[in-house]
Specification:
Blueprint (H helix, E strand, L loop, with lengths): L2 H4 L13 E3 H11 L4 E4 L6 H9 L3 E4 L3 H15 L3 E5 L3 H16 L3 E7 L2 H5 L10 H5 L5 E4 L6 H13 L5 E7 H5 L1 E3 H7 L14 H12 L4 E5 L1 H5 L3 H11 L3 E3 L19 H7 L2 E5 L22 E6 L13 E4 L2 H12 L8 H22 L8 H14 L4 E5 L2 H9 L8 E3 L9 H12 L3 E6 H7 L3 H6 L4 E7 L28 H6 L3 E5 L2 H14 L3 E6 L25
């Protein structure tokens, strides 16, 4: 045996390093665990790497040019999917930009989570002047449904779960989730990290209505001589399409859809009273509200839009009990989720249900047909420059031929007139400014609609509304989305003909005359069209939508064609002082 053979080699056992994870990966894993596949946002300090890592982990990350539009995209994604849309922003100014969309989502009952990076608590609380220092949680709380801050990596799973449940349960809304910069780099054992994640079970459980509430509502409906159903966007969000249609057709009650509820039943349905809305509201004696609130869009249930005070009885279906009696007495409140409440009403009607008197149905039918006939000639003109009716008449035909496409709509006259002119045929195909009536939702809504559904999008914008989010045409081109934008260009807000009485500046409502918005789209690789007649508009939009490429149609509208604030000019107060000469 050699000396070498006698040497015993002993080496210390090398312990395997434990698998680790960090805050970045726990946030991503928590979202993915709950079926969230898309993030909308704007990168920057301190969340740039979170977006990169999310993309590397298979999530889709849609990066915008401004946080407000990313937030609007997240909000409407929530409406379309019933899962909270996620908006990711940087701290302070970026957070504030996203906050407008968060507040709007809460007002419209869209489930959305705004996730923002933030400065460290110990510096913020002592106001020591950190980079983008701001107490974001305190600012967000009054403007959303719930707000949470996560300080420890082990709590990320709970924080995300609470945000999801808050956004979806009961009346949906916006939630703020504050993630300080230090959280992302916190490290913990990977196995413990995975165990800390929470999969939210049944985030929006059914809330069954009380049997006595259903019986009371049916008794009131039975007593009606001129009943009416009003469908709100809550009814569209509920995705109880078959039950709602069955309720309308079984009851025989005519219905008026609010703008984002258009298409729950086709606007051409025999019981649709949308084209006779004024008569339907004013003359009805019992109104069943389904996912609609008696806010300013329905004149608060009183005033000139309705009959004599107290002449109309209201039944309201809403998941939020505090909504009842918010403006007028609700004689039959039905509290619960819309699907359960509608089904309960259907079950209670049974086979012996008596439909409304035929004279009420005929009155609304006659009024609807008269209004449609009166409108028809206005929609058929091919004159140049176009007015709003002629241009919308062309788009009306296109939407009829493409019922599966999604229509996004905002503006003043462009919005007001399109609501009544363009018929919808399928649910959740019309997306617009909603409860607040704000401008600037267009590009964000269009991007999310294309991303979430894979369907072509027709985005009809007033030139003023387009200005709020127009730079996002670059985003649309970057992602190659099948979006056709039509800008109704009348050189200004309402009209392009106003003047400054002093002769010094352009009028406050006037833009650069004859602007070429189509060239903005061309600058980023999309297709631009410049049209002056309805025939040219029809050809351009059809060509664009057939191609599936990003496109923008600059539709020249007569600068004198508009009217102040469209149909809501009464909300713009007039001066009570006459200046002496």
């Amino acid at each position: 045996m050699t000396a070498l053979a006698k040497i015993v080699h002993t080496t210390p056992e090398i312990e395997a390093e434990p698998d680790l994870t960090d805050g970045f990966h726990l946030v991503i894993d928590a979202l993915k665990l709950n079926g969230i596949e898309t993030i909308y946002g704007v990168p920057g300090i301190p969340i740039t790497d979170l977006g990169r890592m999310a993309q590397a982990e298979g999530m889709r990350v849609i990066s915008f040019r401004h946080e407000q539009h990313a937030g609007n995209a997240a909000a409407i994604a929530g409406f379309l999917t019933q899962k909270p849309g996620i908006c990711l922003t940087v701290s302070a100014p970026g957070f504030l930009n996203g906050l407008t969309a968060l507040a709007n989502a809460t007002t419209n009952c869209f489930p959305m989570i705004l996730i923002s990076g933030s400065s460290e608590r110990e510096i913020v609380d002592l106001q020591q002047g950190d980079y983008e220092e701001m107490d974001q949680l305190a600012i967000a709380k009054p403007l959303c449904k719930a707000a949470f801050r996560v300080l420890h990596a082990a709590d990320i799973g709970i924080g995300v779960a609470r945000a999801i449940r808050a956004a979806c349960s009961g009346r949906p809304g916006g939630v703020y989730l504050d993630l300080p910069a230090k959280l992302f780099s916190q490290v913990m054992d990977a196995e413990a990290g995975q165990k800390s994640l929470v999969k939210v079970i049944d985030p929006a459980p059914a809330q069954l209505p009380a049997p006595e509430a259903i019986a009371r509502a049916l008794d009131v409906l039975k007593s009606a001589k001129r009943p009416l159903i009003v469908l709100g966007k809550g009814a569209a969000y509920a995705q109880a399409d078959d039950a709602i249609r069955a309720l309308v057709e079984t009851s025989g009650i005519p219905y008026v859809p609010m703008s984002m509820a258009k298409g729950l039943l086709p606007d051409t349905h025999p019981l649709s009273a949308g084209a006779a809305r004024s008569t339907a509201l004013k003359d009805s004696d019992v109104v069943l509200l389904i996912g609609a609130r008696l806010n300013w869009l329905l004149s608060h249930g009183k005033g000139k839009s309705w009959g004599e005070p107290g002449s109309t009885k209201f039944i309201q279906i809403d998941i939020e009990p505090r909504e009842m009696d918010s403006n007028v007495e609700i004689v039959a409140p039905v509290v619960g989720d819309i699907a359960s409440c509608v089904q309960a009403l259907l079950d209670g009607m049974g086979k012996g249900w008596q439909q409304p008197p035929s004279d009420w149905i005929e009155t609304l039918k006659s009024k609807r047909e008269a209004n449609i006939a009166k409108m028809a000639p206005k929609l058929m003109s091919n004159a140049a420059p176009m007015n709003f009716h002629a241009a919308l008449g062309a788009l009306r035909t296109i939407v009829k031929e493409r019922p599966d496409a999604i229509l996004v709509n905002e503006g003043a006259n462009t919005l007001d007139l399109a609501r009544g002119i363009i018929d919808m045929y399928q649910p959740r195909k019309r997306l617009d400014v909603g409860t607040w009536g704000i401008m600037g939702i267009g590009m964000g809504f269009a991007v999310a609609a294309a991303v979430e559904t894979g369907k072509p999008v027709l985005c009809v914008e007033g030139d003023s509304a387009f200005g709020f989010s127009g730079m996002e045409v670059e985003t649309i081109c970057r992602y190659g989305l099948p979006i056709c934008i039509v800008v109704f260009n009348n050189n200004g807000i309402y009209r392009g003909t106003d003047t400054d009485p002093t002769g010094r500046d352009p009028a406050t409502t006037v833009f650069v005359p004859d602007s070429r918005y189509d060239r903005m789209m061309e600058a980023f690789g999309g297709v631009g069209y410049h049209v002056t007649t309805p025939d040219e508009l029809t050809r351009a939009v059809n060509e664009a939508m057939n191609s599936g490429r990003p496109a923008l149609v600059n539709a020249v509208i007569d600068p004198a064609a508009g009217s102040e604030s469209g149909n809501i000019g009464s909300l713009n107060p007039q001066s009570g002082i006459k200046k002496k000469k």
